[in-house]
Amino acid sequence: MLETFNFRVILEYLPLYWKCLLATLWLSGGGLLGALVVGVVACAMRISRSKLVSTGAGIYIESIRSTPLLAQLYFFYFGLPSLGIPMSEEATGVLALTLNSGAYMAEIIRAGVQSISYGQIEAAMSSGLGYFQRMRHIVLPQAVGVTLPPLLGQAIVLFKDSALLSLISIMELTRAGQIMTSERFMPAEGFLTTAVFYLLIYYMLKGISGWTQKRLIFREAR
Amino acid sequence: MFAIHFTQLMQTLPFFLKGLWGTIAISGLSLLAGSLVGLIMGIIRASRYKTLRMVLGAWVDLIRGTPFLVQIFIAFFILPEVGIQLEAFPAAVIALSNLSACFICEIIAGGILAIPSGQREAATASGLSSYQQLRYVILPQALRVILPPLVGQYVLLIKDSSVVSAIGVLDVTRVGWLTVQRVPEGLLVFGLVGVLYFVICYPLIQLSNSLEKRLTVVTTRL
User: Fold this and answer.
1) A119-143: pLDDT as tens digits
2) Which of A64, A209, A216, B81 could disulfide-link A152, Cβ–Cβ 3.0 to 4.6 Å?
3) How many domains does chain A divide into?
4) At what angle do helices B186-221 and B139-160 cross, to 10 degrees?
5) What is residue B184's DSSP assignment?
């Protein structure tokens, strides 16, 4: 295989890969931002005292976690038009990534918030702090330390999951490999180049994740 | 209109059951193979053979750093170029087994390394061979740490198996995709697909949660 491996064609397609890499980053970045917002809201609803709100959030979280992203993606891709809601492929893809990761992030944030012992909140209350002051000064600073590593892990999963968007014909990294396969019949060159680009970003994200973990441990040791 | 589509969908129910069987077959085979290979890989990963450990670690990183969709395209399109001709089904099982083996490997290694070294020393002092140590001392205790994330990993495996529909393997997602071409009611079709996955995955997630609670109680009691 190696003697027929065609680096020249890869060079020829490099501008396409570059464009597709940017698209992947853009799509997963959008999904990540959306998922953080959805995650915070869903978490707040899940731990709310109102039974109705909490159950609603629970149904959302559990049904997302029990079904594959690809089925969710197709659900929106084929489902929204039949409801008469026209949406571009990109918007559908980002929506699916957002709702999917949002459910996981809600659980991560909930675990972080609940990891703070109730005594601290009682102490804050008896010091006369209001709800937002307690959140701002007591709960959140500690919760961030617990939630940041799994949140970054989820961000990596989200970034890799964005490959599925190629199946609803969105231009992104995996799609570039498919294009090279269908135009030049070179699946090896196409998909291995795609894999290399994913790995580059993966190692970068993993490095950031390791660095923050070290920083967090250091901060706690101080 | 909706009612017509609903009856149409009900008529295709046997087709969905066939897809369900496909999903169960692929996940079941990959679960068995992945657990077995993952166990062996995990034991090596926690052993003292440094080169083997590093090679395995690099492979696990490569697999964890690329999307499963890309891996399955590589298994399906590129292995034939090096002379390994595979049908879609075996290619899917191999790719999925490999993916789960890599994740299970880390879970097993983490479980083994969580056992205090005094246990191993005591076993050595009692004259147990290294196989006996592993079989009677280390693994039974490590199982407590391993089991909850292992069941969680099986849920991920079942959900990831939806991706193999991209190379035409007949599973639930593929059946949904084929059905939606004839019954243009995406919400209904992929709602059904989601329900089928939910029925399998939700009990497993609950099992993983309850295992986590039960096994943690046991360790603190000791």
Assistant:
1) 888 899 999 998 888 888 888 788 8
2) A209
3) 1
4) 170
5) -
Cβ contact A199–B173 (<8 Å): no
Domain range for B51: 2-221
Say how far apart CA A136 and CA A144 lie, in whole Å.
11
Residue-wise pLDDT tens digits, A83-99: 888 889 999 999 999 99
Contact assessment for residue A120 and residue A138, using Cβ atoms and an 8 Å cutoff: yes
Residue contact A82–B166, C-beta within 8 A: no
CB-CB under 8 Å, B70 with A198: yes
Q: What is the distance between the alpha carbons of residues A29 and A97, in angstroms, rounded to a whole number?
A: 10
Q: Where are the alpha helices (DSSP H) in B85-185?
A: 88-113, 117-125, 130-132, 139-160, 172-182
Distance CA A126, CA A143 (A): 21
Question: Which residue from B111, B106, B175, B97 is spatially nearest to B143, judged by alpha carbons?
Answer: B111
Q: Record the pTM.
A: 0.89
A164 CB neighbours in chain B (<8 A) are 67, 69, 163
Domain encompassing residue A203: 2-221
pLDDT of residue B221: 44
pLDDT digits (tens, 9 = 90+) for B108-139: 999 999 999 899 899 999 999 988 998 999 99
Spatial CB neighbours of B120, under 8 Å, sequence gap ≥ 6: B133, B137, B138
Instruction: To the nearest 10°, report the CA torsion of B21, B177, A198, B75.
Output: 50
- Is B118 part of the contact surface with chain A (CB cutoff 8 Å)? no
Q: Tell me how close the Cα of A20 comes to any Cα of chain B, in angstroms.
A: 15
Of A78, A161, A181, the CB nearest to B190: A78
The CATH number that applies at residue B185 is 1.10.3720.10
B86 chain-A contacts, CB cut-off 8 A? none
* Cα Rg of chain B (Å, integer): 21
- Across the interface, of A82, A167, A206, the residue whose CB is closest to B184 is A82
Total domains in chain B come to 1
Is B175:B19 a contact under the CB 8 Å cutoff? yes
Per cent of chain A over pLDDT 70 is 95
Residue A30 confidence (pLDDT) above 50: yes
